[in-house]
Amino acid sequence: MTFQQLWQLRARFAGRLSTMYGQEVPAYTTLVDVSAAVNEEHLARHGADAERLGSIDRVTAERHGAIRVGSPQEMRQVARIFAAFGMHPVGFYDLRDASASSVPVISTAFRPTDPGELAKNPFRVFTSMLAADDPRFFGPELQQRLKEFIDHRILFPQELLDLADRAAEAGGLEEPGAERLLDLATGVFELSGEPVDHAWYRELEAVSAVAADIGGVSATHVNHLTPRVLDIDDLYARMEALGISMIDEIQGPPRWDGPDVLLRQTSFRALAEERVFRFQDGTVGPGALRVRFGEVEQRGIALTRTGRDLYDRMVAETDRRLAVGEGAGVRVDVARAVWEAHLPRTEKELAVRGLGYFTYTLDRDALVRAGGPVIGPDVGLGDLIEAGVAVPEPIVYEDFLPRSAAGIFRSNLTDEGFRDDAQAGTDYDITVMSDVVGRPVADPHDLYRRQQDASVALLREQLAAVAAR
């Protein structure tokens, strides 16, 4: 029998979900094909620079998925399942106030946390939980009915949970246990054919289409699978040319002449999918729901906390300029002007100013040219970068942006929904999310900083060895 390590299980799981989702949402297959074509042509035009944020093999194989659950119990169960694939909770995202629309969810992302594991297979699943206890969205009576509905359903069979626990503890599974785990894990995220209670679904939909998709059905499902592309603007234009309706704009940073940072995302609009409804008179009949869509992403450099503060200020400045009518109301043009005014135009300057996360390698030729003054232990990292002795290699941003996620959600909603802002919202943060998930939720900055610090420590050791000769 062949032992399947966690990363191998993860790669197979991502492949299974991709095949399944392509069968359920054929436009997703088109999205994947166009993404691959864009990547190949981008690589042909730009050569090695195209792979600066990941090899073409990794980028083309890369996916992130999105699912939604309804309660802390379901969130803890899904955490057990993803642990079987070497995926751990990273980051806290509060989408409730990230949009003017009603998006009553809090989220984390399950992904590998070790750089080596990410390189083998970087599959991630953005996982949202309904904030059913937030009185801005749900009154006491609706809260109670939601709780009863969600507590009554079973999303994840015990056999799957037991197999997942075995895999996580052992670091993998032998066949045929691995195959059984994959069958069960893929199956729970397929679109259910069970009839949907029409009145209950529409009642929740009046609050939020996202709430209805979570609490109005008896099962969960993949909401989208996202390929990674090297030129999202090219992808957007090609999809439109194929007659596939895309959302109005690309979410996240604008296209500009400087370094790509963080994450840019877009999607095709949610398509009407046939579903079976149970109506109030007891009859069952056909209908349609519009909740699933095809997202695509372009990843950039991870920003430090200082860099993220600058990013947030640039987003706020873009909003301010748009509010007073600058740039003829075209967000991308206004944002580009803000970026050009505030963000460094080179990776080297990002590194020198401590705005981005990088690993560093030693350039021995530059060290010879610089001479002794840059070898001492008191020489700052910025001076080493400026001298060309420390060569920065960008760390790719592996995580998400709340505003962009909410923007994608909002662009696919049927209407704005309802939120009573006169009420005080329920408090959630990364500590509360850790309690919800039942295991510590990692801060992405800690992971990036640890990777950067390890490379800087190695660089210092190499410099010390040179100085000791």
From TrEMBL:
Keyword Acyltransferase tagged: no
Keyword Methyltransferase: no
Keywords, sorted A to Z: Dioxygenase, Iron, Oxidoreductase
Coiled coil stretches, renumbered: none
Family: Belongs to the 2-oxoadipate dioxygenase/decarboxylase family.
PANTHER family recorded: 2-OXOADIPATE DIOXYGENASE_DECARBOXYLASE (PTHR39479:SF2), PTHR39479
Protein's name according to its UniProt entry: 2-oxoadipate dioxygenase/decarboxylase
Cofactors demanded by this protein: Fe(2+)
EC nos: 1.13.11.93
InterPro entries from the UniProt entry: HGLS, YdcJ_bac-like
SMART domains, per database record: DUF1338
CDD domains in the record: VOC_YdcJ_like
Enzyme class: oxidoreductase
Pfam families the record matches: HGLS (PF07063)
